[in-house]
Amino acid sequence: MKQRIITAIIAAALFIPFVIYGKVPFALLVLAMAIVGFYEILKMKGISILSVPGFLGLITLILLVIPKDWSVRVVELIGYSSNLMVVYGLMMLLLIYVVLVKNKITFDEVGFILLGAFYVGLGFHYLIETRNVGLEYVVYCLLVVWTTDSGAYFVGRKLGKNKLWPEISPKKTIEGFIGGIVIAVIFAVGMQLIYPFANGYISLVFVTIFASIIGQMGDLVESAIKRHFDVKDSGNILPGHGGILDRFDSLLFVVPLLHFLHLFGN
Questions:
Q1: Residue 79 has what pLDDT?
Q2: Distance CA 223, CA 200 (A)
Q3: Which regions of the chain are under pLDDT 70?
Q4: Contact 116, 38 (CB under 8 A)
Q5: 3-state SS string over 203-257?
Q6: Most buried pick, 13, 91, 240, 249, via CB within 10 A?
């Protein structure tokens, strides 16, 4: 527990200034985290990021993560009509590579690489876009995810009796799941009282409930992936906390869906 607290304090001290400043430094930090996260998910499958398929997947990831204005410049530089066309071209190269090496890398592995690039890439991309919309929105997302996680942990330890999904995450309970939602709503309302940013309390409560549920589902998805590959943590870059995906699994689900539902008004 001591190691977890020390790591959390140091990580927050390094991360928060980038969140506050935003712009290029924040985008580059998020891109770096995305690359580490992609490395972690490939490692679980036993695929080297330095291999030809891993490298093509990495380029796909980078194109998915970078902000919209950066991707426009990249596309113009390459001469394609859209970023999607570049990603499609990389997918074709991956499939052609499977044929050239006579199935030494399988179509299943190519599918995993591409799914991993989209899963990690789009999640971190929308973290950047959320910060570009406004500091208050990225603070709100981080607040919901972190308070949900903490609320679910402490409420689950204190009151948890009924297992939520023992086959995937044995320690999670239904009581903790509900407690995480309640704690997230309380903190979101508190943020609204201190710094009004939402259109109203009713809509804020409903959005927070939705975000908290989706965030916990993202955490379960990451747990399912780790259980499938029989690993405890996605990585070890954060002592006591595991890897990048272990800490950002919920956020990778929350920020894209809030954007897709136009809840940030952009």
A1: 63
A2: 34
A3: 1-2, 4, 75, 79-82, 261-266
A4: yes
A5: HHHHHHHHHHHHHHHHHHHHHHHHHHHCCCCCCCCECCCECHHHHHHHHHHHHHH
A6: 249
- Any idea which residue has 């943020």 for tokens? 191
Q: Is the distance from CB of 127 to CB of 258 less than 8 angstroms?
A: no
Alpha carbon 55 to its chain centroid, in Å, reads 21
Count other Cβ atoms within 10 Å, centred on residue 143.
Answer: 17
Q: What is the pLDDT of residues 92-123, one digit of tens each?
A: 999 999 999 988 888 899 999 999 999 999 99
Quick one: tokens of 4?
């977890």
Tokens representing 30 are 């998020």
Distance between CA atoms of residues 133 and 180, nearest Å: 26
Question: According to the model, what pLDDT value does residue 69 have?
Answer: 86
How long is the chain? 266
Dist CA 139 CA 83 (whole Å) = 29
Helices 201-229/135-159 angle, 10° precision: 70
